[in-house]
């Protein structure tokens, strides 16, 4: 399982520290300046102004985050471009497999929630900037997801593994970091915010182990991208960190329900992926 974390063994610790600091400066420093500058220029906030312009402003920081993660991988850590996301060239079939599987589980979970809480979900009519918003989401969300996956599932755990070669600890530490950057999200204001934190931690933990066992980011990326696209385009919720003109909106936000639903769906998803891998081994040996 540690094979994925043992890449670039000749790279010194100093380069790893420089890489982490450079990414954080680009994301939190330059990215924040870019996002806040665009919000000021477009006169938008979380509560006021165009949701499209707010989305673009927020994701300006993620574009810099993405560029910095790729730059340090290639130029500081000397990672081959073809192996940027794993131990072999990108496996599209595994990405598509996870994306379609998780999208299906999200749709199924939403249908069940609609039956249980029929008054909570409402249809949102198309808005004037809806098409432009859809285009922006489809272009920028993969960049956000790719940046987060490279940083939290590759750079951070590999750096921690250099300090203490225990793969489980490296994944747990990276999951805690992923949880930490979501602490300012609006849903953290609920009385049971610890369950929201539990959701983010469990999501990151399962994604981290998925990367190690699969020796690549493809499935974790598919899972993560399906989650974000579903929230941006299909079903938004009341305390969402980004205002989205999704097709449907739910007023039912129960951290306990959401955590239990996610844990169950993740268990089902993991079981299906394990079954698919078992069949693949039987066929190809």
Structural write-up:
- InterPro entries: Rce1/LyrA-like_dom.
- The chain crosses the membrane at residues 12-30, 50-77, 98-118, 130-147, 159-181, 193-213, 220-237, 257-276.
- It holds the Pfam family Rce1-like.
- This protein has helices at 13-42, 51-76, 92-116, 130-163, 167-180, 193-214, 218-234, 255-284; strands at 121-123, 235-237, 248-250.
- Helix 1 runs antiparallel to helix 2 (51-76) and helix 2 runs parallel beside helix 4.
- The chain has 285 residues and is mainly alpha-helical.
- 33% of the residues are buried.
- It contains eight helices and three strands, in the order αααβααααββα.
- It has one domain.
- The mean pLDDT is 90.
Descriptive tags:
three-stranded mixed beta sheet, 3% strand
Concise summary:
With 285 residues, this protein is mainly alpha-helical. It has eight helices and three strands. Strands 1-3-2 form a three-stranded mixed sheet.
How many domains comprise the coordinates? 1
Question: What would you call the structural class?
Answer: mainly alpha
Radius of gyration: 19 Å
Question: Biggest β-sheet, characterized?
Answer: 3 strands, mixed
Shape: globular
Quaternary structure state of the chains depicted: single chain
Low-confidence blocks of residues: none
Order of neighbouring strands in the sheet with most strands: 1-3-2
State the helical fraction.
55-70%
> In percent terms, what proportion of residues is strand?
under 5%
Ends apart, CA distance between termini: 20 Å
Average pLDDT confidence is 90
Organism: bacterium (Candidatus Blackallbacteria) CG17_big_fil_post_rev_8_21_14_2_50_48_46
GO molecular function, one term: endopeptidase activity
Protein name: CAAX prenyl protease 2/Lysostaphin resistance protein A-like domain-containing protein
GO biological process, one term: CAAX-box protein maturation
């Amino acid at each position: 399982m540690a094979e994925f974390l043992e890449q670039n063994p000749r790279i010194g610790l100093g380069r790893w520290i420089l890489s982490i600091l450079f990414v954080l400066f680009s994301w939190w420093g330059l990215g924040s300046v870019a996002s806040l500058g665009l919000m000021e220029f477009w006169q938008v906030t979380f509560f006021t102004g165009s949701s499209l312009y707010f989305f673009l402003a927020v994701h300006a920081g993620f574009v810099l985050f993405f560029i910095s993660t790729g730059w340090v991988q290639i130029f500081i850590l000397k990672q081959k471009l073809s192996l940027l996301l794993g131990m072999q060239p990108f496996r599209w079939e595994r990405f598509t497999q996870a994306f379609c599987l998780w999208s299906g589980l999200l749709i199924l979970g939403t249908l069940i929630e609609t039956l249980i809480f029929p008054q909570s979900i409402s249809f949102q009519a198309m808005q004037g900037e809806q098409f432009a918003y859809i285009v922006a989401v489809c272009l920028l969300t993969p960049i956000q997801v790719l940046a987060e996956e490279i940083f939290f599932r590759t750079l951070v755990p590999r750096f921690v593994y250099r300090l203490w070669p225990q793969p489980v600890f490296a994944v747990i530490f990276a999951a805690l970091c992923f949880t930490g950057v979501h602490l300012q999200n609006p849903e953290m204001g609920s009385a049971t915010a610890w369950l929201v934190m539990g959701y983010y931690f469990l999501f990151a933990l399962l994604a981290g182990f998925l990367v190690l066992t699969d020796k690549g980011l493809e499935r974790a990326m598919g899972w993560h991208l399906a989650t974000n696209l579903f929230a941006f385009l299909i079903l938004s919720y009341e305390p969402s960190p980004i205002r989205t003109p999704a097709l449907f909106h739910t007023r039912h936000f129960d951290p306990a329900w959401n955590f239990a639903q996610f844990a169950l769906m993740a268990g089902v998803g993991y079981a299906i992926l394990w079954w698919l891998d078992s069949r693949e081994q039987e066929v190809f040996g």
